[in-house]
Amino acid sequence: MKTIVLLLMSGLLGVLTTDTIAQPNPGKVTEELQKFNWMVGDWNGEAWYLARDQKKIRLIQKEHIITRLDGTIITMEGTGYDIPSGTEEAKVVFQAFGILTYDLPNSKFVLRAYQGGNFIDSDLSPNPDGSFSWVINTSYGKTRYTLKLTAEGKWNEVGEYSRDGTEWVKNFEMTLTRL
Q1: Rounded to two decimals, what is the model's pTM?
Q2: Could you tell me the CATH number of the domain that includes residue 142?
Q3: Helix/strand/coil (H, E, C) string of 87-133?
Q4: What does the pLDDT look like over 4-51, one tens digit per residue?
Q5: Are 175 and 46 in contact, with CB atoms under 8 Å apart?
Q6: Which domain holds residue 48?
Q7: Assigned domain for 2 exists
């Protein structure tokens, strides 16, 4: 019985390590992801978001970006800290982790982001000005984020909220400098 199970598992591993999980052309995936090479490294700066009561909350934001698996994925780890007053130490108030890759069969960038025990999947679309945007659909509206490298070499990201997908209200922004 053990021999049969071992043979079945060997066959399954052989199938899973071929075309079923492999991108057909990892070199093309790496080539497409080079559009985001400017992000790789460590970043630090200020961010803000609108709380439910519409008060602007300011944060210190840090991002740690790495290419992995021969450049076929980019991982992003973001941490937001409150801005302490007086002698208080900064506390973590936000953590997120994302994986960006290029879906070769569908010719698009895809982002999976994790935060607070939840995750989203979103397409990352290029804009005419060189920036990239992604949208998160929720039961109460949409949130759109736009990411770009500024002329000064800074990472700028803006978040906007819309109930109807036509009128957008800015509710987040961060501007980071490479460390």
Answers
A1: 0.82
A2: 2.40.128.20
A3: CCCCCEEEEEEEEEEEECCCCEEEEEEEECCEEEEEEEEECCCCCEE
A4: 444 444 444 444 455 545 556 789 999 999 999 999 999 999 999 999
A5: yes
A6: 25-178
A7: no
